[in-house]
Write a structure and sequence with these properties.
By secondary structure, the protein is α/β, with parallel strands linked by helices. It contains eleven helices and eight strands. β3, α5 (98-111) and β4 form a beta-alpha-beta unit. α2 (31-39) crosses α4 (66-79) and α4 runs parallel beside α5 (98-111). The chain binds 3-methyl-2-oxobutanoic acid.
Length: 269
């Protein structure tokens, strides 16, 4: 078991980049997992809007609401003590106006988040400035932004051609200038992620963006082998919990049906 270190804060994440220590981030949606990931010395817990797909059964993140994110933030916060807790802002919770962004992001902080993550480039700069004034730390998210899936025409690698790469790098610099404390780079070519990570003084956290990012994030259900195949190329499964859970349920079912469970050892005399 990794030795849990002290509490990770927003400035503490920056210090990890300065010390060239790679950042370990995972998504987290519930209390039990939050406790386990704290003990496993993970640095950042992201209450991702991916919960719409992996926990709520939607086919995209678009239906996820502010109320969904508040509920999951509250229960993750109860199990969190030392990780930096970041909550994703769902589709249309920030895009309408800076005032709307401050109101909804503020609710996440009241629910226990220590920072929020917002998808988008230069178009979200007015929101970022308002959030800075309201003292709400913001993590950016560039590259494949799942809330833009229809505009992109699917879940595709972004920034492949020179023009798109230039725009992505310019957006990253603009987010840093506007006060973002870190940026998630999702599904971008590794060479572009490397250029951006070197150009920025804030940390980059990659998912499908190669090894040169300052940290890595994965969806916890993908890492645990709970998500059915096919999985994107960047996912590495570190366990096969689908199998473990199914096998346990099948064995339980067999024992209940055959009368072997509960036996004397699991019965009050
Ligand atoms: O919602 C999410 O889980 C995310 C990560 C994949 C970065 O945004």
């Amino acid at each position: 078991m990794a030795k849990p270190s002290r509490k990770i804060t927003v400035p503490g994440l920056q210090a990890l980049k300065t010390r060239r220590q790679r950042i370990v981030a995972l998504t987290c949606y519930d209390y039990t997992t939050a406790r386990l990931l704290n003990e496993a010395a993970v640095d950042v817990l992201l209450v991702g809007d991916s919960l719409g797909m992996v926990k709520l059964g939607y086919s995209s993140t678009l239906p996820v609401t502010v109320e969904d994110m508040l509920y999951h933030t509250r229960i993750v916060a109860k199990g969190n003590s030392r990780c930096l807790l970041v909550t994703d802002m769902p589709y249309l919770s920030c895009q309408i106006s800076p005032e709307q962004a401050v109101e909804n992001c503020g609710l996440m902080l009241k629910a226990g988040a220590e920072a929020v993550k917002i998808e988008g480039g230069s178009e979200i700069l007015p929101m970022l400035e308002a959030l800075q004034r309201a003292k709400i730390p913001v993590m950016g998210h560039l590259g494949m932004m799942p809330q833009s899936v229809h505009q992109f025409g699917g879940y595709k690698v972004q920034g492949r051609d020179a023009e798109a790469a230039r725009k992505l790098a310019a957006d990253a610099r603009a987010l840093e200038r506007a006060g973002a404390f870190a940026i998630v780079l999702e599904c971008v070519p590794s060479s572009l992620a490397k250029t951006i990570s070197r150009a920025l003084s804030i940390p980059t956290i990659g998912i499908g963006a190669g090894a040169a990012c300052d940290g890595q994030i994965l969806v916890i259900d993908d890492l645990l082998g709970l998500t059915p195949a096919p999985l994107p190329r960047f996912v590495k499964r570190y366990a096969d919990l689908r199998n473990v859970i199914q096998q346990a349920a099948v064995r339980y079912g067999r024992e209940v049906r055959s009368g072997r469970f509960p036996d004397a050892g699991h019965t009050y005399p």
